[in-house]
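idk why but the lab printer keeps eating my pages so im just putting this in chat instead. protein + 4'-deoxy-4'-aminopyridoxal-5'-phosphate:
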Amino acid sequence: RTLSDWLALRQQFPILSREVKGKPLVYFDNAATSQKPQVVIDALSHYYSYYNANIHRGIHTLAEEATMAYEATRDAVRDFVGAAEREEIIFTRGTTEAINLVAYTWGRKHISEGDEILISGMEHHSNIVPWQILCAEKGALLKVVPVEDDGSLSMSAFHELLSERTKLVSIVQVSNALGTVNPVKEIIDAAHRAGAKVLVDGAQSAVHLDIDVQDMDCDFFAFSGHKVYGPTGVGALYGKRELLESMPVFQGGGEMIKEVSFEGTTYADLPYKYEAGTPNIADTIALKAALDFISGIGKAQIRAHEDELLAYATAELKAIPGLKIIGEAAQKVSLVSFVVEGIHPQDIGVLLDNMGIAVRTGHHCTQPLMKRFGIPGTVRASFALYNEKTEIDVLIAALHKTIKMLT
Ligand code: PMP
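predcted complex ->
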């Protein structure tokens, strides 16, 4: 793809032509949520203006059209993560709900006193807290694989911590705070040999890396629609069929049943067993537009573009005196986290916003990781397919100004 191809893609994101504080918006907060292309916005508005209806139960035309569109997204997600069967895709509100679903259902059934759950020191709070709740309830132990100084996972510690007591390894594929890509295949392979199941938190990886749950052989995989150029409020959990079939139900209600009587209830088949109540129809439908948009470009192309931005940003940032990058693992994608000596990250964020630049500052929902590095937080610039080198130049110039003002 040429530069003009990327510019044409960028033009499909209407928000990117707005100004902030009188300056053209530079949006570098993509790891928090990505912007939406017009096709996604159109899919939402088309559903509400043309075929809004409740799904699965109606026999009228609108209900049928809405059901078809909703279920078409399930097929698109199956493709997107490389699952074998559409029944293995459960719609959730996002990664957080997907992880909680597993903790609540699989976890409640399979975790008991003395069992161990293994996570890492770079997990997002949403892959820590559900397991703490479960462990407290069951008298199980949460163990943590430490993070090395360069932001990579200590694989030797992982292999040491893994034992026959480990029932689950729940691991982030790409760190939202450092950009580190973890060797999930090696982790999954070792965990399986130890008899443990593995959940992969794909909230950050799904948009950058090719995901193939069959090749990875993970037991569960979770991601969020809003980080893959789709809407908020929808995401998915992939689970291996035999696991999903044997797990107890999550929420009870309409749609998840076969037959209800006061004597007892039988549950629906996969995937509906885990989708109680009227789901988020509009956002789920629009998620397909986002996934089609990504596959229309190709993840390899997107990754190459983002890698170029990352390399450029890393080199330029390193040339700034007093600036330190946190997380320089060999395997990284698309974001750079940094601190500047003597300046609080938040002060940098406020001044950058005054110049139209959106970055994230703070602990990035990874407080234990910040503690590990002995910092209150970082400034994080995260890149997407529509970002350009010239925007990094704007960031670098703004940082020079900011540091001058604050020191
Ligand atoms: N895990 C990681 C690595 C994340 O980056 C995020 C979102 N910041 C989540 C989980 C939670 O995702 P959501 O808030 O969309 O449920």
